[in-house]
Amino acid sequence: MSFRGMKALVPILIYMIIGFGLASAASFYKWSGSLEVGESVHVEGLTLTVDKNNATGELALIIRAPDKLLGLLKASESGEFEGLSISFKEFNGYGIIDISSGTPFSVSFTTSEDYQKQIEELKQENTALRAENEELKKEVQSLTAENKKLKQQVSELQSKLENQPNTAELRTQITNLTKENRELKAQLANLTNKVNQLKAENEFLSQQNEEYRTMIQNLLKETAQGSEQDYIEQAKKERLIGSVLLKSILFAGAIVGLIGYGLYKKKRGWEYPL
Fold first, then answer.
1. Which of 32, 78, 234, 260 could be a cystine partner for 87, CB 3.0 to 4.6 Å?
2. What digits encode the pLDDT tens for the residues 124-173?
């Protein structure tokens, strides 16, 4: 809808009220207008659009900044947005907007060229959505066919399963084997731990055995050296004892010989007197 058409249908009042008394000398700027559903007005960089809730039929005013949504006013609601006091009412299917501020502000409307541009953008977006919808339809058809195929496979497998003899027994065996497998895994884990412990103990004992072997060899060497020294000392002692015994025997023999010789001489003196 063009600006001229809006003027024909709904009057747009732009007025300024200056002063409420000579003492205050205050200035207020106000704009009032009405918009149909879908129409917008631009106020100081803000875009105000009248929208409608299709479910309830209620009108609402959407306030947007260039980069974000500032707020939403339902009928008979008001608020402060970027220094502007905005109130919204509904009358006979139109949205009535009142804007006031302590400073001047500019008001502009969406032109027919802007509407045409929006229409073209919506058409392009609609075309893209239709193409995407067609792709989604193809994908849905493909998934539906695949789902049907899978259902058929499931049905065939169920039929084969029902026709298999002793299915319950096989399932019981599988359950038992699974349980045994878990128990064997637990036993294997325990045995693995024990083997690792035995390996550690074996390494420790091997180390101790090597230490003991070294100690024994050292003791044997020391014992062998001590035995050799003892043997030498013992041999010296035995040689000394033998020498003493030999000398004693010789000395005793000499004494015995002397005594015997003396007795012999004495005997001969008795047998052959002079």
1. 78
2. 877 888 888 888 888 888 888 888 888 888 887 877 777 766 666 767 77
